[in-house]
Structure to design on (424 residues):
């Protein structure tokens, strides 16, 4: 058979909790867990609709260990649908669901191959008595795997098309714990044709050819570090070469940021109208959204947008209109990046304290090193508090930096507003 198709998915995290949401809105938190399972159901349906020849799952099928009983049931139920359609599935375990933690009571269908830990195994995909491809894979035996398992992969010269199934961190990625680290040269040395990777939740084609190396990302975003549509890769192979690589969207709920221009708005009614228009537009799509809305531009409403209590009350009111069983738009928060109706350029050119303050804030906002030092100082200052300890143990460094930037912007305008009012 000269042509075949397969789906490459990873990081299903079935029944994963949604960080921070449940505390804000219990109804939404429960709904999101179900939407995460729905993404898995969509993955199974995509394999059936595309009539793929096999599927690859590159680790972290469950969010923790072997998952709850309901997660196990839903996982197996999906695999059984593929079994009825004669679609083989090849699975490795990752750091969230290491092999040693998989339940002995979890009975996988006959179409599923679960790779062992420690040593690379090789399995042949056969269809109509014809070998389509060789799948090489290795599972995490335990939660923390820091060995470079990629070095164990070596191609069998008899294979017409060879795939490496690996859960790990590519060199240079400092945003994730370096489980099973590897570099591109190691992958090339294996002489495989396609590397089906997992662990990094951001979709990325590391190498387009010789070999093709792909992170498909996770199938459903779970917080604001995982924005945009999520899904899997659909790969078409002809005569031993990848000829097509498509993205299939599976996420029913999308985390995202949205920039709203508030310039020229004359009152809060204009603002509310703009938000309702946005929500109406988004709810006509086939997705639900969790948004952080950045308010941009020069406006007389700047002081209102800077009032945390008022904006929180407005956000709660807007979210109270949602029903979380169908399509919805949930506003996580508004990020005030607007500025008041003053001539900034003229103020900067003056020689007063306001001009000096503007200059100092801009220097701090544009200096990553200085902002980084400020972040470290803040974390050290609150290190003995519960919040401080939790922040130091999180992997939300980028989000914390974003929050710091917002704090600096808010502080700048509060200072400037106060000084200008005192001039009048």
């Amino acid at each position: 058979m000269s042509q075949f198709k397969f789906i490459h998915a990873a990081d299903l995290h079935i029944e994963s909790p949604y960080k921070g949401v449940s505390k804000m809105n219990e109804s939404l938190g429960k709904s999101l867990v179900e939407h995460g399972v729905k993404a898995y159901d969509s993955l199974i349906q995509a394999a059936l609709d595309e009539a793929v020849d096999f599927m690859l799952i590159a680790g972290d099928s469950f969010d923790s260990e072997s998952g709850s009983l309901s997660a196990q049931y839903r996982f197996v139920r999906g695999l059984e649908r593929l079994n009825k359609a004669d679609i083989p599935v090849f699975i490795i375990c990752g750091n969230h669901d290491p092999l040693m933690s998989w339940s002995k009571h979890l009975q996988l269908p006959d179409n599923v191959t679960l790779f062992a830990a420690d040593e690379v195994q090789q399995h042949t995909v056969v269809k109509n008595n014809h070998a389509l491809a060789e799948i090489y894979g290795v599972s995490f035996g335990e939660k923390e795997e820091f060995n470079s398992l990629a070095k164990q992969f070596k191609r069998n010269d008899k294979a017409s098309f060879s795939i490496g199934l690996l859960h790990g961190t590519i060199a240079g990625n400092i945003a994730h714990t370096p489980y099973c680290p590897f570099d591109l040269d190691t992958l090339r040395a294996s002489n495989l044709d396609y590397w089906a990777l997992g662990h990094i939740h951001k979709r990325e084609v590391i190498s387009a050819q010789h070999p093709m190396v792909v992170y498909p990302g996770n199938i459903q975003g779970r917080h604001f570090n995982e924005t945009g549509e999520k899904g899997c890769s659909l790969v078409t192979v002809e005569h031993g070469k990848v000829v097509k690589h498509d993205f299939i969207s599976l996420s029913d709920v999308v985390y995202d940021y949205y920039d709203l221009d508030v310039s020229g708005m004359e009152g809060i009614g204009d603002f509310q109208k703009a938000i309702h228009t946005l929500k109406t537009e988004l709810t006509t799509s086939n997705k639900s959204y969790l948004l952080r809305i950045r308010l941009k531009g020069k406006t007389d409403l700047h002081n209102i947008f800077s009032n945390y209590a008022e904006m929180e009350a407005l956000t709660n009111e807007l979210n109270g209109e949602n029903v979380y069983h169908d399509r919805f738009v949930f506003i996580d928060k508004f990020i005030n990046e607007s500025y008041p109706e003053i001539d900034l350029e003229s103020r900067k050119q003056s020689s007063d304290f306001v001009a000096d303050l503007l200059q100092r804030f801009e220097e701090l906002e544009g200096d990553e090193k200085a902002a980084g030092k400020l972040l470290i100082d803040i974390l050290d200052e609150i290190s003995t508090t519960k919040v401080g300890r939790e922040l130091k143990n999180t992997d939300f460094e980028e989000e914390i930096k974003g929050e710091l930037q917002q704090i600096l912007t808010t502080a700048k305008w509060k200072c400037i507003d106060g000084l200008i009012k005192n001039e009048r």
User: Anything to note?
Assistant: The mean pLDDT is 84. Residues 151 and 186 are 6 Å apart (CA to CA). The chain has twelve helices and 15 strands.
